[in-house]
Amino acid sequence: MITSTRTLLAGLLGLLLLQSDPALARDVGAESLTEIVVIGSRERLRDLPGAGNVIDSSMIDAARPFTVNEIIRQVPGVFARDEEGFGLRPNLGIRGLNPTRSSKVLLLEDGLPLAFAPYGDNASYYHPPIARFASIEVLKGASQIQFGPQTVGGVINYITADVPDEFRGALATRIGNRGFGELSLEVGDRLAGGAGWLANISRKETDGARDNMRFKVTDVSVKTSRTLSERQSLTLRASYYQEDSQVPYSGLTLQEYATDPRMNPFVNDRFDIDRVGVAATHGWQPGAETQLKTSVYYTFFNRDWWRQSSNSAQRPNDASDPACAGLVNLLTTCGNEGRLRQYYTAGVEQRLTTQSTLGGVPLATEFGARWHIEKQYRVQVNGDTPRARAPGVGPNAGVREDNRRDVRAAALFWQSRLEFGRLGLTPGLRYERIDYERQNFLNNARGSTAIDQLIPGLGATFEISDQVLLYAGAHRGFAPPRVEDLISPGGGSVELQAELSWNYELGLRAALAPNFELDVTAFRMDFANQIVPASVAGGIGAALTSAGETLHQGAELAVQFDAPLAATAWRASARLAYTQLLDAKFVGQRFSSVSGARDVLVTGNRLPYAAERLANASFGLASARGITLQVSANYTSSLYTDDLETVAVTADGQRGRIGGATVWNATAQYQLRDGLTMFASAKNLSDKLYVVDMSRGLIPGAPRLVQLGLDYRF
To answer: How far from 273 is each of 6, 11, 343, 502, 640, CA to CA, in Å?
Structure first.
């Protein structure tokens, strides 16, 4: 796989060089014509008709984040739930939406889909290392209908660095406790003929948050750009990701957690990933006020997870595997399950932007279209022993699942911005058509169905003054169901509707002083139908059901300050991201999904994993002598894990209230000389023991992590 990937990357670079004419001037920058803009820059927040945040490279460098969760918590409204302690499978939720596998969030890389199946199975079992990205954008509100298909919570767009105009590079290395080591290299150049390239390679290893775990991750990416003419440019991207990890799927029972909260009895579980992604974006500027961007993308994702347990109640399950007498024979006769998945995703997307006037009113318009396909191959193989990698012959062994799931989707969208003096209006409309098909090779059953949806949106801004902007918006929230939620293994249709909501925002963005910015937003998400797991403690792969009407409403606050300290050589910075989720509750008639309580009415109860308060605060100092210090704190209030609002933790560790926690981090850096920086960081300074998840059993947060590193830029 590595050899073929290297050949692919070399071929892409060679193709780009052959397509270029060295005599052509770079009148139009390659990046400007081929960049798919979500927000674009912190300056563009000024005109955004909704809540938005940009985490730039300076913020990432100051924090020296260990995982993407750590840095994304600087955005109000985003709940980043940890899992394995390495941030490889992020669980991101926005404004009270369930964070499990980030399935209610649209993840993009350079404006193109990052998830392996955004229509048919929008779950994140993969995430690139933070070292690959130069900045991160988070877009909420009506403007997110430009992207899709997920338009419920928000869009998170990870942005890779621009191809440089001259040779440059960066080499970084880190070591730390719990077996942590990281080495990353980024290097790029602009060749004599005008073509440019940027390559990023990183390797990370660690023991994670629990015992008997080991993660090994390699990530390689290449980005090339070329101006083809004064009005055309082309950018190609390719990446390869490989993970080889010893990691369980299950959390702990209550008794196990009390005995040793960092134990992992499933020492033979393995998780392997291979992912290849390629994309090309062609930019054409036929006129001074018109641009057409055409993107083609393809990803292959292979995931094999061999495990003995799918949740903490399966230890393993003696009833289904008589040869296994519980944990006594865990290392000998207890069988395992191979959850083997392959995903093929491809698409073509075009975006046409124009600048004009309508009756003397300035008008900026974007039209877009997307054609997208997904193919999933899903096999479950049960083995006879903990180390089995093939079907066994026991009563619960053999091939338990073998099916193919196909998705074909077509989308159209339009969005315009009209300027009436201080008032700006941004209407838009998106249309999604999705065709689903499922074929079960075990019983030769086949089924198909389709859904379509119109997604309108309207945003508005009003300039109260040069420093203060009022914004408001309303849009339709839409999240398509998975293939397995619409078509049963027998090929029949499942009566599960798409997730639909009406989302509203009202906010104020202000620059109260040259170095002091404030953004406050009130939001409301009124769901006609929210999709939740049929069994609250059923794990990630549980069947889903329509929860009916639910309501999310609250407020977000973002504050940023950066200014020199009077009469000193130091500069101070402070940031605060705060979320108050006043309501996240069932408002329609709803009965519990907890086994044994299906006749209990839970209307008015709080939704699982919807924390009432989130806060992230940081304070930093930087001196002219190259010393930088930063301390940050992240707070998550208590939350319920089931619809009954159960407080006491159950014996299987899958239901109960998770207590609130504050985690402190610190980073110190010193610039030894120009381009060479030494740094040290400590995550979870107090070594606080706290629970982060109970969906598959009790899972602890990461312990204290101390790391030392060098960063050399040339």
So the answer is: 17, 24, 11, 37, 32
Count Cβ atoms below 10 Å from residue 443 Cβ, excluding itself: 11
Q: Are strands 180-190 and 290-307 parallel, antiparallel or unpaired?
A: unpaired
Q: What is the DSSP letter of 101?
A: G
3 state SS of 57: helix
Mean pLDDT by 10 residues, the chain (714 residues): 42 40 34 85 85 95 94 97 90 95 95 96 92 95 95 96 95 97 97 90 95 97 94 96 95 94 93 98 94 98 92 62 66 87 98 94 96 97 90 85 97 97 97 97 95 97 95 97 90 80 97 92 93 58 68 97 91 97 94 91 95 98 95 98 96 96 98 97 98 95 97 97
714: number of Cβ within 10 Å: 11
The helix (H) or strand (E) run that includes residue 711 is: strand 705-713
Residue 522, token pair as written in the block: 């009130």
Domain 2-713 falls under CATH 2.60.120.560: no
Contact 81/692 with Cβ under 8 angstroms? yes
Distance CA 459, CA 504 (A): 10
SS3 100: helix
What does the radius of gyration of the chain's CA atoms come to, in whole angstroms? 25
Tokens found for residue 326 = 């519980």
To which residue do tokens 């998770």 refer? Answer: 658
Residue identified by tokens 């119109």 is 454
Domain segments of the chain: what residues? 2-713
Please give the angle made by the CA atoms of 153, 110 and 507, to the nearest 5 degrees.
35
Please state, in angstroms and rounded to a whole number, the distance separating the CA atoms of residues 609 and 643: 10
Query: Quick one: DSSP state of residue 89?
Result: S
